[in-house]
Structure formats: structure tokens, C-alpha cells
Amino acid sequence: MSPLEAIRDWHRQLPKRIAALVADRLLWAVSRELPRIKDADEAVQKFDAWLSEESDNPFYIATKAATFRTIFELSLQDSLDERIWRERAELLCGFLEFRPDSEFARQSLRGWEFEAAQWGAQKQGWQTLVHNSLSNEALRDYIDSVLRTVTGESL
Hints:
It contains eight helices and no strands. By secondary structure, it is mainly alpha-helical. It has one domain (3-151). Helix 5 (82-98) runs antiparallel to helix 6. The longest helix has 18 residues, at 58-75.
């Protein structure tokens, strides 16, 4: 399985909202112009198209996979960190102490608790994906495997 296929499989099992956010972040990072994405389904569709661009060049595939890993780590990795969600909740709780009548803060806190649980459930899957398919070692192994199959030579 190529690293891009592994990303696609991981992405397809994400909750819809998280899958759309991951797709949106990648598209923003790899587009020459600001993407004009209308909705979550379109973002996921365009992300899937980006992953599906075919190439026989294992270096191209590995570079795209490394690009995805880097974009995720730079812009979304904190979402997997329970400490970050706890700090956000503590800030809202502090605001609620100051303004106990704030319905917005109450709703935000409930929303964040839900988001934290959804993101937290994805942490193990992300770590497994990185270890098995997106680490530098895994990408080198993929390139080496393809080269041995195609040319009979290794890196």
C-alpha cells in the first residue's frame, strides 16, 4: 500500500467534520491561489483528488505524503493534544466565572468538550499512520521497495 493510500484510508474513517478540516488545511497549504471551497463535501472531494493523482515515481508519492504529514503537524497536531483542549476549557470556565450568564460561553464549552473527545479518539490512528506509513523511515522503505520491484536496485 502506498503512503497516499494509507492517508486516504485513515482520512475516510475520520468523523465528517474533522475530515473536512483536514482536507481544507491541506488544500490551503498546497494551492497557489486561495481555494474557493463551498462546503465540507467539496473539500473532502478535492483532497481525495489530490491524493489520487497518480505517478509511477515513488519519490513523488513520498514527497506528497511527507507534505501532508508536515501540514498536519504544523496546523492540526495540537488538536490531538488533550492539554490544549483542557487549557481552552479552563479559559472558558474563567470567563464563565466572570460572566455566568454567557450562553455563548456555555455553548462553546459544550462544543469544545465534544470536539476534544472527537479529536482525542483520532490520536492513536494518527500515530499509527505516521509510524507505519509517513515517518521518514517508512517513506524510505516505500521508495526502496518500489525501486527494487521496478529496477531491481535499491536506494
